[in-house]
Amino acid sequence: MAQPLFFLVLVLAFVGSVTDAAVVEHTFRVGNVRVRRQCKNRVITAVNGQLPGPTIYAHEGDTVIVHVINESPYDMSIHWHGILQLLTAWADGPNMITQCPIRPGKSYTYKFNIIGQEGTLWWHAHVSSLRATVHGALIILPREGPKAYPFPQPYKEVPILLGEWWNANVVQVENKALATGLQPNKSDAFTINGRLGDLYRCSDKHTYKLDVEYGKTYLLRIINAAVNNQLFFKMAGHSFTVVAVDAGYTVPYPTDVLVLAPGQTVDALVVANAPPSRYYMAARAYISSPPPLQPFDDTTTTGIVRYKSAMPSSARPAMPLMPDYTDTPTAHQFYTSLTGLLKPGWPTVPLHVDEHMFVTFGLGTVPCRRDQPRCTQGALAASMNNVSFEFPTQTSLLEAHFKGVKGIYTRDFPDRPPLVFDFTNKNLSTNRALMFTSKGTKLKKVKYNATVEIVLQNTAIIGTENHPLHLHGFNFFVLAQGFGNFDWETAVQSYNLVHPQMRNTIAVPTGGWAVIRFVANNPGIWFMHCHLDVHLPWGLGMAFEVENGPTPDSTLPPPPPDFPQC
Ligand SMILES: *[C@@H]1O[C@H](CO)[C@@H](O)[C@H](O)[C@H]1NC(C)=O
Ligand SMILES: *[C@@H]1O[C@H](CO)[C@@H](O)[C@H](O)[C@H]1NC(C)=O
Ligand SMILES: *[C@@H]1O[C@H](CO)[C@@H](O)[C@H](O)[C@H]1NC(C)=O
Ligand SMILES: *[C@@H]1O[C@H](CO)[C@@H](O)[C@H](O)[C@H]1NC(C)=O
Ligand SMILES: [Cu+2]
């Protein structure tokens, strides 16, 4: 046996001179740093003192090792958003779901392989609101490099991280909201690659600039790293061709406007073919609840595209005409026009379904607590199938699952809502009988390799809103989306079972529904939750418990030796 194996290793080493899997290693020191924005001094938590944090570049097939050293005063955990984490659930990162936090002064090494995915992903803190400033890009190139893209090779690639900024401590903003049971303060600004842009006061010199050469094609790898806002993105004088979303290739889709929910990414080609000059790129909020449920951040962040051949000028760059804040038709057009690119050897939509779920979700209320004196009408909450998710406090779900610890969670997450009502009827928004939600840490257990189909149905309780739902551990196919109540008879005719878009985060239409499908081929505990950070502590989440498969290749190994303890 030894000889053929030795021979095989030699052959692989030979062929592998270009395509060899590598180890990509980083050290992330998470700590507090002083910055000055809008003429104010601020202390933020950041990785290696950078905002955005370091970009991780890897090739498909590589192993990524990140040593996270927590020098901040907060509990920390890092999530590798969109990474499938095949058999490495211990490295997924959501606080109290797959791990206890890394305490101040402690460290933890995340180690995972990147298998069967290419494109733009990102990493972010997955504990309280710290991801506001603890985040960065995670870019996966094809094993053979850019020449293997299923689109013409761009001249240059540019990460564009869209962020959200508070002139306050984000942890205090969140804690205050949770203590009162009310909405948290809105943000003060948005950012492009950590910079506010010259439409904000004191920010003239704090503007992201992209230098381009006439006639060249650029690949923008755009990430919505904002905390609570979906964002429209445009570039004056230019249009985009979308080639991937959430690290899944799409059929090229031409458009002059992009919209991204928090957690989502868009890879878009831009040809620098406008008259050489200076142009703004800009991002501002898409608010999905008209009239807006609460005051929102109506500011605009800008960056400047500068043609190298442009004549010097002091004129303001051309500004793109942004969609209205509440332009749901434009957002819906973008979200529903994307289709997946069929590529030999890549996953296709499973046609047989083992588990059918119908999950209603949205806002609600729970009784005020004694320590919430300003709370009178009930504290704001959110739920899925009328369960408001409660995070465990003693042991992470994954550790409880692996060690068989009882009493941390139950396996009774319902497959259907307990009550069928006119889910999206706004007249029922303030109905007291529907508003109150139950609480629990309920999981849905699924067999290894089962295909799960979920109808995600928004409700109108308290208000209608587009909630971006993010699934850990899997990509899913989006079969259909629509407004109003899901109706199987009509919806099933619109299912895309040929080339649906593949995502890890679906912005479910406001007052509407979406149907997703995934194969549970990864044992462990996998969180599914709203990626608007404000709704997560309110309980808009649930988790899947995926059993081990029949072989060692389908069995979750034990946690690494430095796994954080509670
Ligand atoms: C929230 O906003 C109010 C009004 O602008 C301000 O007085 C308060 O300090 C803010 N709270 C936090 C925690 O930032
Ligand atoms: C909501 O209430 C109004 C006023 O009573 C009524 O005209 C309308 O039909 C109701 N809408 C729905 C969807 O039931
Ligand atoms: C949710 O559960 C609570 C508590 O059991 C109940 O009062 C409420 O009617 C339920 N709401 C819905 C929409 O099922
Ligand atoms: C999982 O499902 C796939 C496709 O349905 C099948 O090819 C594979 O053998 C299954 N694996 C196991 C371990 O059951
Ligand atoms: Cu939400």
Automatic annotation (TrEMBL):
CDD domains: CuRO_1_LCC_plant, CuRO_2_LCC_plant, CuRO_3_LCC_plant. Its EC number is 1.10.3.2. One of its GO terms (biological process) is lignin catabolic process. GO terms for cellular component: apoplast. Its cofactor is Cu cation. Binds 4 Cu cations per monomer. Its main location: secreted. Keywords: Apoplast, Copper, Lignin degradation, Metal-binding, Oxidoreductase, Repeat, Secreted, Signal. It catalyses: 4 hydroquinone + O2 = 4 benzosemiquinone + 2 H2O. Residues 31-144, 157-309, 412-548 form the Plastocyanin-like domain. Belongs to the multicopper oxidase family. Lignin degradation and detoxification of lignin-derived products. This is Laccase. The gene is LOC105052146.
